[in-house]
Design a protein that fits this description.
It contains one helix and ten strands, in the order E-E-E-H-E-E-E-E-E-E-E. The protein is mainly beta. The protein has a four-stranded antiparallel β-sheet with strand order 6-7-8-9, with no helix packed on it. Strands 1-2-5 form a three-stranded antiparallel β-sheet, with no helix packed on it. A hairpin with a 5-residue loop joins strand 1 and strand 2. The chain is globular, with a radius of gyration of 13 Å. The chain has a single domain, classed as Beta Complex (Metal Binding Protein, Guanine Nucleotide Exchange Factor, Chain A), CATH 2.170.150.70.
């Protein structure tokens, strides 16, 4: 397992997590992810493997539909840092564009069929 660090654009939301080496990304085609267009971690991160810190009330959450998935974003700069997944509640997929030292645009990607979950 590798220890990664990351943050939103303004730095008000920061996180560290442990995961296998990140060599591939995932994009979801559900109604919200397709609009955001972010590359996410292939691995869903267990709650014991992530530490999140936020200044004041900077960490905000958006939910819709089944109200199971929790899309977390910075209320100051608007960047979605991670999502707690619908299929594995309490586990996180990380916005790889927020991870230090990772160029998410250069990673090979798979498309996840989230449309079938809407």
């Amino acid at each position: 397992m590798i220890r990664y660090t990351g943050s939103c654009h303004c730095g008000a939301v920061k996180f560290t997590f442990s995961a296998p080496e990140i060599e591939q990304a995932m994009r979801c085609d559900c109604s919200i992810c397709a609009r955001k267009g972010i590359s996410m971690s292939m691995t869903a991160i267990a709650p014991e493997n992530i530490e999140i810190s936020a200044k004041g009330d900077a960490l905000s959450t958006y939910q819709f539909g089944s109200m199971t998935a929790r899309h977390h974003f910075c209320s100051q700069c608007g960047i979605q840092t991670f999502v707690e997944t619908r299929l594995n509640p309490g586990h996180y997929r990380i916005n790889l564009g927020c991870v230090d030292g990772i160029n998410a645009l250069r990673l090979p990607e798979i498309i996840y069929d989230g449309q079938s979950l809407d």
